[in-house]
Amino acid sequence: MKSANYSAYIGLDVHKDTIAVAIASPERQGEVRFYGNISSAKDSVIRLMKKLIKLHEPILVCYEAGPTGYGLYRLLLSMNIDCIVVAPSRIPKLSTNKIKNDHRDAVALARLLRAGELVDIWVPDITHEAMRDLVRARSCAKKDTKVAKQRIQSILLRAGKIYEKKMWTVRHRVWLANQSFPLPSQQIAYEHYRQSLEQIENRITQLDQEIDRLLPDWSLNNLVNQLQAFKGVGRTIAISVVAELGDFSRFSNPKQIMAFLGLIPGEYSSGATVRKAGITKAGNVELRRLLYEAAWSYRTNAKVGNWLVTYRPDSVCQEAKDISWKAQQRLCFRYRSLVAKGKKSQVAITAVARELLGFMWDIAVTTQNQRV
Q1: How many CB atoms lie within 10 A of CB 329?
Q2: H or E segment to which residue 246 belongs
Q3: pLDDT, tens only, 154-188
């Protein structure tokens, strides 16, 4: 949170059509009043802010992150108004408060902003936001692919048609195309499922092409290349990690980024009683899944295999390669030692994924310092 002396703290409860506005005086026990509702149109926001600046300059504005995006944030910055976007999950709330409306939400935001109790999020630039939207769209399409394949397998299983060899290869797809059913209605349903899968795969191809087009203009393109130095971290995982986490330098140490993605152990302790729990599972579920996927590569012995030699980008610097090799040696040993102690493979992979994220942070900070 920015440290400055403000004459007023403005809380905005933002919706698609309206914005509820509340104003808190700078004094610790000062007045917090509800200003009213305005239209969310750009002109209305500009008129309101000009009026508030005349009355209270300087001001600090906040609103919750949500489906309306960051357009309001960028508009306020263009007017030289300090603004923060607040993480909704980190807003303090009373369990006894059973009344919720726009009026109360705006007043609560203004009061908490003045008290310094709100946690602001990192706001991406327009290019980064576009890349993140593309990555999320691709992730959704991959999930749709899984559903579409399951539907095809289900209708074939009901008809007693089973493919014994490896599935979804070129040979398997030829076999799928040659399948026929006794009733025309079943054939139509089957072809519908196949066409649906083909359409989804075409969408993924289009999204990959758009990601390739946007990647050179992305300020974090170099970081995407450097992260591919790691074993198990391909282009898709590297782009997804950078798109979701953004600027790694906002985390002062690896433990913060581990906690951000919910990879640290939970705890329920009181007095002399100490109870450990599983990981907190906070943050992005899909990103955590991708880290698990990469971590499975460290079950084998450490070596620079054909995958790293063939598919690692040429732009990977020597420092990133050194960190990658150090990570591979440690993580491969880490997995084997945990399994040897009787830990389940899923628990060991979680520990490997957590430390892999720490090594990613190391590469991000190292390469950034080199550019500076």
Answers
A1: 14
A2: none
A3: 999 999 999 999 999 999 999 999 999 999 999 99
CB 249 within 8 A of CB 364: yes
Tell me what pLDDT residue 294 has: 96
User: Rounded distance, CA 44 to CA 115, Å?
Assistant: 28
Helices assigned H by DSSP within the chain: 42-56, 71-78, 102-115, 126-158, 170-177, 184-214, 221-227, 235-245, 254-260, 285-295, 306-311, 318-340, 345-371
Answer yes or no: are the C-beta atoms of 273 and 248 closer than 8 Å: no
* The model's pTM: 0.87
Do 187 and 225 fall into the same domain?
Answer: no
Q: Which domain holds residue 159?
A: 126-217
Per-residue model confidence (pLDDT) at position 63: 97
Q: Quick one: 366 and 229 in the same domain? A: yes
CA distance 42 to 46: 6
Bond preceding residue 184 cis, omega within 30 of 0: no
The pLDDT value given to residue 28: 86
pLDDT of residue 307 exceeding 50? yes
Torsion-angle region of 264 (φ positive above 0: left; ψ -120 to 50: alpha; else: beta): beta
The pLDDT value recorded for residue 372 is 43
Please name which of 161, 198, 165, 196 lies closest in space to residue 182, comparing C-alpha atoms: 161
Average pLDDT of the residues in 68-76: 96
Q: What is the CATH number of the domain that holds 62?
A: 3.30.420.10
Say if 297 falls within a structural domain: yes
Query: Radius of gyration (Cα) for the chain, nearest Å?
Result: 26
Cα separation of the two ends of the chain: 24
